[in-house]
Amino acid sequence: MPFANSNKGVAATAATSLPASTNRYLGWSERWLPKLSLFPTLLVSGTAIYVFIVWTGVLSFTGSRMLPRYNFVGFDSYRAMFATERFGVAATNIVIYASLYIAISLALGLLLAILLDQKVRGEGLLRMIFLFPMSLSLIVTGVVWRWIFNPGLGLEKFAYDMGFVDFKLDWIINPSLAIYTLVIAAIWQSSGFVMVLMLAGLRGVDGSIIRAAQIDGASMPYIYWKIVLPLLAPVIFSATVILGHLAIKNFDLVVAMTNGGPGYATDMPATFMYAYSFERSQIAVGAASSIIMLGVATLLLVPYLYIQIRRGR
Amino acid sequence: MTAAITIKSLRKTFGALTVLHEVDLSIEPGQFVVLVGPSGCGKSTLLDCICGLSQPTAGSLHFDDQDVTNLPPRERDIAMVFQSYALYPSMTVRQNIEFGLKVRKMPKAERDKEVTRVATLLKIEHLLDRRPSQMSGGQRQRVAMGRAMARRPRIFLFDEPLSNLDAKLRVEMRHEIKRMHQLVRTTTIYVTHDQVEALSLADVIVVMKEGHIQQVGTPQEIYDKPANTFVASFMGSPPMNLIPARMKRRDGVAGAELLPAGGLPNWIKLQEPAKPIADGEELIIGIRPEEFHFTSERPLLDGDVAELTLPINVLEPLGSEYVFTSTVNGAEVSARLNAKSGPHPDGDTLQVLFEPRRVCLFDPGTSNRL
Questions:
Q1: What integer pLDDT is reported at residue A24 of this predicted model?
Q2: A227–B87: do the CB atoms touch at under 8 Å?
Q3: DSSP state of A145
C-alpha cells in the first residue's frame, strides 16, 4: 500500500513537471537554434564582405603599393586616381555602358514581351530561345561577340566573302566605338531576361482594361503607353535595379571581349580596380576606386531599399 | 443619338467550334435588351461581335442603316461596362471618365463639364480624385458606368456588370442601371446569366442556348409563354414544373391524367393545343410553382379550377410563402403557396388548386411549345 501510494505520487509529480521541463528545453532550442544555424553564413559573409570592405577602405587611405602598408597619407590615392586619365575613361565608359545597356535592354525586352503577348504560336519555345543567352556565362558571351566583331573572323569577313568588299565593321578595334560592342553583347545577353520579367507583368494586366480602352477609341500604341506601361512600373523598377547592379559589376565581359582595349579605351571601374591593384602594384589607388564604386552602388540602391522597406510596412 | 441594331444570320466559329449559329435579331432604338443564357451559350461572343472586339465569321451587323460589320470598335460609337469594371488602375476617377473624351480630342472645358454632368448623375462627385484601388466594388461599378455615359454613345453594352457584387449591392445597382436607362433612353444590350436580372431590367429578353436564340420576347411573354422547355426551366426560380403526361380526351375535350405519388389519378382539362394531338400521345405539362393555390383562394380564381391532392416531400416555410416539393407522374414538382392564405401545412398531403388555362404544353420530341 505505501509502495502503491508513493508510486502514485511519483507519477503525479512527473505528470506535472514534465511539460515545464519540455517547455524549458524547447525554449532554449527555439531561442538559439535559428541563431546557431545562421551563424556560419553570418560569419562567412561578415568576414568575406564587411571586414574586407573596411580593410579596403583603410587601404585606400594608405600609401600601399604592391603590398598593404599602413602609412596613412589621407586622400592622396584618391587625388592620384582622379588625376589619371584612365580613371576618367573608365568613369565615362561605365556611364555610357550602364545607361545604354539599361535603357536599350528595357526597351527591347518590353517590345519583345508585347509582341510575344499577342497570343503567338510557339510562345513557350520563343520565350526559351530569348531567355537562353542569360544562361551563358559572360565570358562565353564575350568570346563569341569578340569573334563576331573581329574584322578578320566575324561579320566583316563574312560580308567580304559574300562579295560586299566595302563593308566595314571594325568597332572593336576603334577606341571610340569599342565600348558600344560591349553594350551590344550585354544587351544580347540580358534583353531576353527583361522580356520574361515584362511578360509576367503583362500577364497580370486585366485584358478587359485593354478592351475597354479600345472601345473608348484609343489606338494600341496609345493604350500601351498610357495604360499598360504605368501598370508595369514596379516590373520596370525591379528590372532597372537588376540591370543596374549587373552593369556596375561588369568585369568578365570586358576581360573576355576587349580586355579593356584597344589601349584602355574600354576600361570600366572594375577592370581599372583590378589593373591597379594586381597588375600595376598600386593597391591604394585600386582600393580608392573600389570605395568610389561602393559609394555609387549604394546611392543607386538606397531608393530601392527605401521603397522595399516602406512597402514592407 | 440612339441607334437601332440589326443582326442578320450572324455566325461565329472558333476553329471547328461553332459558337453562334445564324443569329438573327433586330433591336429598336432605345430598347433595353437582355441576352440571357447559361454559360457557354454564346451571349458574350454575340456581345463581342456587336462591340467589334470579335469579328463574325459570317453575317452582317447594322447600326441604323450603317453597316458596321467590319468597323473597329472605336468607330462604332458604343460604350461598354465590364464585369471586372476594367477601370484604368493608374488613373483617377476623373481621368478614367474623361479618357474616351480625351482620345476624341474634346477641349478641356467641355470635358470638365461632361465629367461634372456624369458625376452628378451617378452621385460620384466626391470620388473624382480617387483611384480605382481606393474604392469599393459598387463605387467602381458606378465609375465604369460613368465612363460609358460620358461619351454619349449611341449604344450601351453591359457584360455581366453585377456578377462581382454582393447580393444587396446587386439589387441596388440593378435599380441604378434601370434608372439610368430611363433617363438617357439609349439602346442597351445587357448580358447576364441571372434570369432575375433579365426579367427585372429588360424591355426585351433574348434567351440563348448553345449558340441559338431560343426565344425573343418581353419578360412577361418569356415568363408566361416560354417557347420551349429550356426557356421554361431556365427562367423563374424555382423553375417551371415539367410533368410528363398523355393526352386523354373526355367527350372530345382535351385533358390529361395527373397521378400524384401515392394518390389517385386525377383528370384535368387542358387548353386545346394549336397543333392537333391525338389521344394517347405524349406531352409535357408545364406549371409555374406559384400557379398552385391553397383551397381557400378558390374565390380568386377564374373559370375552370383543377384540384389535386399532393404528397409533401419537403416543405420550406419562407415567411411570406411556403415552398414544397411533391411528385406527380414520377416528376418532381415544386409549389409556392401564399402563406397568408392557409395554415401551416401539416400532414403528408396537401390539397391545392390551379387554373388549367395557365398551363403550358410542350412536345416531348422537339421540346417546343404546342
A1: 59
A2: no
A3: H
Q: For residue A173, what is the DSSP state?
A: G
Nearest partner of A267 among A119, A102, A93, A74, judged by Cα: A93
Q: Closest Cα partner for A205 from A235, A232, A240, A176? A: A232
Q: What confidence tier does B307 reach under pLDDT thresholds 50, 70, 90?
A: confident
Q: Do B53 and A214 touch (CB under 8 A)?
A: yes
Q: Say which residues have a Cβ less than 8 Å from residue A296's Cβ, sequence separation at least 6.
A: A248
d(CA B263, CA B333): 15
Provide the residue ranges of all domains of chain A, joining segments of one domain with +. 2-57, 85-312
**Chain B residues touching A228 at Cβ < 8 A:** none
Closest CA to B64 of B89, B34, B27, B91: B27
Cα gap B261→B310, rounded to integer Å:
8
Predicted local distance difference test score (pLDDT) of residue B188: 93
B100 CB neighbours in chain A (<8 A) are: 216-217
How many residue pairs from chains A and B have C-beta atoms closer than 8 A? 60
Adjacent-strand bridge partners of B205: B34, B217
Using CB atoms within 10 A of its CB, is residue A28 exposed (0-12), middle (13-18) or buried (19+)?
exposed
Please give the C-alpha separations between residue A285 and each of A56, A77, A281, B57, in angstroms, as whole numbers. 10, 5, 9, 73
* pLDDT averages per 10-residue partition of chain A, 313 residues: 43 46 65 86 89 88 81 83 86 90 93 86 84 84 84 79 77 80 88 90 88 88 90 89 85 82 82 86 87 86 80 64
Residue of A nearest to B104 (CA): A217
| Interchain pair B53, A227: CB under 8 A | no
Could you give the 3-state DSSP secondary structure of residue A236?
helix
- Considering only CB atoms, A231 lies closest to which of B53, B89, B100, namely B89
Q: Which three cell numbers stand for residue B110?
A: 467641355
Interface of B with A in 108-167 (CB under 8 A): 147, 151
B304: its cell numbers: 375552370
Cα B145 to Cα B134: distance, rounded to the nearest angstrom: 17
Residues 6+ apart with CB under 8 A from B362: B228, B229, B232, B242, B283, B284, B286, B368, B369, B370
Q: Provide the percentage of residues in chain B whose pLDDT is more than 90.
A: 29
Q: What is the pLDDT of residue A17?
A: 46
Instruction: Tell if the CB–CB gap between B74 and A218 is shorter than 8 Å.
Output: yes
Spatial CA neighbour of B205 closest among B232, B185, B223:
B223
For residue A129, give the H/E element and its range: helix A123-131
pLDDT value for A12 = 43
CATH topology of domain A85-312: MetI-like fold (1.10.3720)
Return all residues near B178 (Cβ < 8 A) that are at least 6 apart.
Answer: B32, B200, B201
Residue of chain A whose Cα is closest to the Cα of B53: A211
Residue B257 has pLDDT above 90, yes or no: no
| Grid coordinates given for A84 | 589619371
Q: Which three cell numbers stand for residue B147?
A: 465612363
Interface confidence (ipTM) of the complex: 0.78
